[in-house]
Amino acid sequence: MPVKRLNVAVLLAAFNGMQWIEEQLASILSQTGVDVSIYISIDTSTDGTEAWCAAYASRHPGVFVLPPAGSFGGASRNFFRLIRDVAIESYDFVAFADQDDIWYPDKLERAVREIRSRAVDAYSSNVVAFWPDGRTHLLDKAQRQTPWDFLFEAAGPGCTYVLSRTFVSALRTAMLADWQELQHVSLHDWYCYAFARSRGFKWFIDHRPSMSYRQHERNQVGANTGLNPLIARYKTIHDGWWFSQVRRIVRLVGLENDRFVRRWLPLGRWQMLTLSLSAWKCRRRVRDKIFFFCVCWATAVIGNKAK
C-alpha cells in the first residue's frame, strides 16, 4: 500500500511581481516528496500581476488566487490575510513564500523531515542571497537560539518558514483575537517566531540553505550585508521604529508582565542600560549581540523617538 504523501499549503504574498513570480512559482511546483497547493494574495498592483496570476491558476490545478482585498501597504498584512483566509485544516503543513526567490527542489521535503524527526513545530533555514551581477552570499541565521532572541529578531527570512498545522491553528486564533493591533506589526516573520517561542512551540533553524534569495531594489527587507544596511538598521532604531515594534510584539504575545521584560519595557534611559547588560541573551549572532549592546547604550545616551 503506497505511503500517503504529506501536503503543504504555500502562502504567497504578491505585489507588482511580474518580473520574477513565474520563476518562483515554477520552483514551488517542482518540490519533491510532498504535495503542494499554492495560495496567492495580491496587494493591488499596477503591472498586471492580478490578471497574470489568474491566468496561471487556470492552467495549474494546485494554484489558487484569493479574491481581491484592496491595498495592504506591505507584505506583513498580506501574509496575515493569507493565514486568516486560507483553510489550513486540510493541510499537514503551511509554508510562506515571497514572489521573487528560487526554491531548492527539496526545500519543503527537507523541512517536513526535520520537523517530524526533531519533534518541533516550526522550521526555518539559511538562504543564499544572490544579486543581478552574479554575486552570492550565505545569510547565516542559524546560531543557537537564546532565551529572549524572539522579542528582538525573526528566525531568519520568513520565506523559509514551514509550520505545522497545530502551530498555525494556534497562531491564527491569537491573530484573530488581536486583529486590529496586528495590523501595525511590520514584519510577519518576527511576530510568528515570537508567538511560537512565547507559547512554548519548538523551532528549528537549519544551517543548510534551502533557497536562493533574490536581491533587488524593491526588497522590503533583503540581505543584511555591508556597512550601508548597518547604518540603515541604526536609523530605524534611532527613529523609534524598531523599539516601537518590540513593544507591540511584547504586548501581542502577552509578555508585558514578565519579570525580565518589566525591567526594560518602559525603554527609558536606565531601562536601556539595563537591557544592554542582557545583550547576550537577546540576539543569536555574536555580531548582533555587540551591535545590540552598543545600540542600547547609544539610545540611553542620546535617546530615540520611540513612543
Comma- or semicolon-separated keywords:
307 residues, alpha/beta, Spore Coat Polysaccharide Biosynthesis Protein SpsA, Chain A, 2 domains, seven-stranded mixed sheet, four-stranded mixed sheet, 12 helices, 11 strands, globular
Explain this structure to me?
- The chain is an alpha/beta fold and 307 residues long.
- It has 2 domains: 7-214, Spore Coat Polysaccharide Biosynthesis Protein SpsA, Chain A (Alpha-Beta Complex); 227-302, no CATH class.
- The protein is built from 12 helices and 11 strands.
- It has a 7-stranded mixed β-sheet, sandwiched between helices. A 4-stranded mixed β-sheet has the order 5-11-7-8.
- The radius of gyration is 19 Å and the shape is globular.
Summarize the structure.
The protein is an alpha/beta fold and 307 residues long.
Anisotropy-based shape: globular
Radius of gyration: 19 Å
Largest sheet: 7 strands, mixed
The succession of helices and strands, N to C, reads EHEHEHEEHEEEEHHHEEHHHHH
Which spans of ≥5 residues are poorly predicted at pLDDT below 50?
none
* The CATH architecture of the largest domain: Alpha-Beta Complex
Question: Which topology of the largest domain does CATH recognise?
Answer: Spore Coat Polysaccharide Biosynthesis Protein SpsA, Chain A
Overall tally of domains: 2
Strand content: 15-25%
Query: How large is the count of helical segments?
Result: 12
Find the CATH superfamily of the largest domain: Spore Coat Polysaccharide Biosynthesis Protein SpsA, Chain A
- Across the major sheet, the strand order is 3-2-1-4-9-6-10
